[in-house]
Write a structure and sequence with these properties.
Two copies of one chain form a homodimer. Chain A is of the alpha/beta class. Chain A is built from five helices and eleven strands. In chain A, helix 2 packs across helix 3.
Chain lengths: 193, 193
């Protein structure tokens, strides 16, 4: 087991409905030393990729992306959730459905900060059905940017998002892939990597 | 001028209505190397303070707080904006008015992650009228936590937030304090520190 898998075993909480709560170290309280390890691991897994920018989405992706960006020595751009429907044409936009919050957000990235010259690493905390990732990929494509890779903290391997993204040909690296979990006894099984 | 002030002069854009756009390096695209410098500067300014946790608010505060937390070697907790009115009593809450978005958000922090044992540094990107800061201070007080200091990137010195917070006795350190700006010629004047 790697450092993230060990931490999930220690501090993750399995809830009914295939919910894995990791808010004590990943997405409410944040263990930035763990994020530093994640950055080193992504650096190893994406070695040889020419990455000049990291793209993520608010809010939980921002902390991880910022610490990972320090490892890569590149800036971060985060897609913002927008309530505004009057966008002024200076923004790339995508619709992102949230199953957690049961709503659809428009996410936006300013055209100033993403373009054909960019070779990006997409970073996010969770991958389940893949809606947020599809939105970020769509924004990257609108910008003509090259997606060099995708780094996820925790992938729910029993949902279809990861397989779909890999089938599209992207190098997707999830540091922990949960194959199954059981709220009754709190157990979590990881995919061997 | 320090590194942040120089960057504001170089890449900040002054808009009508006392708006200072710094989205190319602070709160949409993020220069994490600059955040690292900010962390070192806060470490110097809050030397001798016994800080064990950083508190910030989503979304723009998270990137800065995460990189600053690496410098301090402590975890971050970020207050979440919540649309839910059915909170389960496991959360500290505060109302925060946003002048940018013309609305009021309820922000929440889980009671699990803040308590009387915590000595916190509050971090945020902007300070103008001080509404977001007041919400975070209120949450810290509800938790019985000690606010050891407040670190802001850019303070609008011509609005009342900074004076009010300092009058309450908090050590508030803003790395750039804008005394005045002029959209007509793009000029920005900083307070001498």
């Amino acid at each position: 087991m790697n450092a993230l898998e060990e931490r999930i075993m220690k501090d993750g909480v399995v809830k009914e409905g295939n919910v894995l709560k990791v808010d004590s170290f990943l997405n409410h309280q944040m263990d930035v030393e763990l994020f530093k390890w994640m950055g080193e691991e992504y650096k190893r897994r994406f070695a040889g990729k020419n990455i000049n920018k990291i793209l993520t989405i608010e809010a939980s992706g921002i902390g991880i992306a910022s610490v990972v960006a320090l490892e890569f020595g590149v800036p971060v751009v985060f897609a913002k959730k927008s309530k505004s429907i009057n966008l002024d044409g200076e923004m790339y936009t995508a619709q992102v459905e949230s199953f957690t919050h049961k709503n659809v957000n428009t996410v936006i990235v300013s055209k100033k900060f993403l373009g054909p010259e960019d070779h990006i690493l997409i970073i996010d905390d969770f991958l389940a059905n893949g809606c947020a990732l599809q939105g970020l990929i769509q924004i990257a494509q609108s910008a003509g940017a090259t997606v060099e890779g995708i780094g996820i903290a925790i992938e729910k391997g029993f949902q279809q998002g990861g397989r779909m993204i890999r089938n599209l040909g992207y190098q997707l690296e999830s540091l922990a892939i949960v194959e199954s979990m059981d709220a009754a006894n709190g157990s979590v099984e990881f995919r061997e990597q």
